[in-house]
Amino acid sequence: MKIFDVFCGEGIQGNPCAVIMLTGWPPEHELAQSARRLKVPVTSFIVSHGLEHHIRWFSAAGEINLCGHGSLAAGAALLEQSRQKRVTLSSRYGPVTIVKNANRYQLELPSWKRNNCSIAKEQLGLTIEPLDIFSTRDLVVVLESEGAVKDYNPNFKKIRKLNQFHAVILTAMSSTNSYVLRYFAPI
Fold it and tell me: What is the 3-state composition of the chain as percent helix, strand, coil, each rounded to the nearest 5?
């Protein structure tokens, strides 16, 4: 078992994730129990068969269906061990690829199909009209500006009622090449 601080750098503390390599999958309740005992936001469990690596992610609340920082930590652990530059992890939700470039890691996550949906702004506790609302596994709400995302005051009681989604994401462009987002999960 190793703990990684992911998304860290100068002035940034990171997001801790434990990585545990297994020889086979124990019952789900044992994985959940291990994650709770470690008391980090996410624990990544990996079972490898030769060059094939399978991954599952758990928080203290239970299994997570996809986790970016948990994938980066698992990829870093495997790449550190193998001295390779690229690894693909198999998950129930599609392949996750991690590539090491110098001191940085690049992450490729599976994508989900965009679905149109009609959620009233009041259901989210929004006071402004969103530019777009759609769903994938998550409910994605596109706002007009970075300021609108930062100023959003979440109404968790209303957000919890949107439990048909894994999470609620509020996002907006912050420049021509970048965006901001706030992520509320699990619902």
Answer: 20, 40, 35
- 114 phi/psi in degrees, rounded to 5: -80, 135
Residue found by looking up tokens 């530059």 in the block? 85
Domains of the chain: 2-108 (3.10.310.10), 115-184 (3.10.310.10)
Residue 2 CB neighbour total at 10 angstroms: 13
Dump the DSSP string for 29-66.
HHHHHHHHHHTSSEEEEEEEETTEEEEEEEETTEEES-
Contact between residue 78 and residue 52 where contact means Cβ atoms under 8 Å apart: no
Residue type at 142 in one-letter notation: V
For residues 19 and 55, is the Cβ–Cβ distance under 8 A?
Answer: no
pLDDT tens, residue by residue, 128-151: 999 999 999 899 999 999 999 999
Beta bridge mates, 134: 116, 140
Residue type (1 letter), 128: I
Global confidence as pTM: 0.72
